[in-house]
Amino acid sequence: MAVSGGQALLNERVLASGLCVGCGACVGICPYYHYFDGKVMIMDPCRVESGRCFQVCPRAECEETDPGRGEETEYSGEIGPYRRVLMARAVDPDIRDRAQYGGAVSALLIHALEAGDIDCAVLTDAGGALAPDGKIVRRKEEVLACAGSRYSASGGLSALNRAVSSDETRIGVVGLPCQMEALARLGKTDPDGAERLAAVSVRIGLFCTWALDYRKLNRFLRDRLPGKTLKKYDIPPPPAEVFRVLMDDGWVDFPLSEIRPLVQKGCGLCCDMTAHRADISVGTVEGIESWNTVIVRTDAGAALVDSAIAKGRLETEELPEENLRHLKKAAANKRERGERASGDAGRSS
């Protein structure tokens, strides 16, 4: 298939190079891409010179849409700009029971939907026979059905593109750091990128060190756990160094040294662990079970968190200073690794 223009650049720099992180930003914004079972594929050739597929991709290095241009000072901190950092968890025990850790993301989204702050939310479904994918949700049970960590790419922004194309507004989006970057790039695309981004009312970013290639993970688990029904994954904080898989008959642990070869190649170039470009960023709290670390970054993020607290949906405590130091150190280490890998890739190209 002969391709040219922006599609050719995206194919050369990202898809054919194995650097695609499956964020889904190009799928639906351009009719020539499709996301299936963890992979983004070109369906037909396109010759648009400056295609939005290339402009929004977080691995394409499109200078025109680089969200960091002119913002070097603001985004130079280890965890990015923020108003405050908290420990938080859902007050509702049903949410906490079904969520990965403290259920803060689910609690915030359910509150936003029921309060009418957003009309729908873009999440990642639980997957199954195929890789996890983006899903548009509107009710509490739909949010809870998507609760939990996937540790793999999801193509989630394809669901956002579907929602915007259906004239949805006031959308909440949950995604990884690469997906938050893609949203920031979207706002700089022409002719209607800023208008499309304006449909997003709140962006909730998830802490991420890396994401796994779903197809590789699926093959690994089929080989190691044949015939088993897998219910949940977890990566406990250091020093555990294990990848945990929950089945009907209990947990099985695999050394992270066996899992790291399954990490997407493009994740090695990422410098952002805490989703700098979200309104709110959420992760676990190292050493404290059933709580989330919540970084409040923007006016929109502060308004949602404060409203959820006031309505009794979210309870908070101060994050211990030691935890904040560890978080900043981990984020700085990822940034250093990403910058080093990017430099090595540039020298070898």
Task: Characterise the protein shown here.
It is a single chain. This protein is an alpha+beta fold and 349 residues long. The chain has three domains: 5-66, Alpha-Beta Plaits (2-Layer Sandwich); 84-211 and 272-343, no CATH class; 214-262. 34% of the residues lie in helices and 19% in strands. It has helices at 5-15, 52-56, 93-98, 104-115, 140-145, 157-165, 177-186, 193-197, 214-224, 256-259, 299-310, 321-348, and strands at 33-36, 39-42, 84-90, 120-124, 134-137, 171-175, 200-206, 230-234, 242-247, 250-255, 280-284, 292-296, 314-318. The strands form three sheets. It has an eight-stranded mixed beta sheet with strand order 5-4-6-7-11-12-3-13, with helices on both faces. Strands 8-9-10 form a three-stranded antiparallel beta sheet. A two-stranded antiparallel sheet has the order 1-2. The radius of gyration is 19 Å and the shape is globular. The model has no long low-confidence stretch (mean pLDDT 92).
What's the gyration radius in Å? 19 Å
The strand order across the widest sheet is 5-4-6-7-11-12-3-13
Return the domain count: 3
N-to-C SSE string, H for helix and E for strand: HEEHEHHEEHHEHHEHEEEHEEHEH
> How much helix, percentage-wise, in residues?
25-40%
- Poorly predicted regions are none
**Helix count, per DSSP?**
12
Shape descriptor reads: globular
- Terminal Cα separation, in Å? 24 Å
Number of strands: 13
Q: Structural class, please?
A: alpha+beta
Mean pLDDT: 92
Taking the sheet with the most strands, its summary is: 8 strands, mixed
Tell me what portion of residues adopts beta-strand conformation: 15-25%
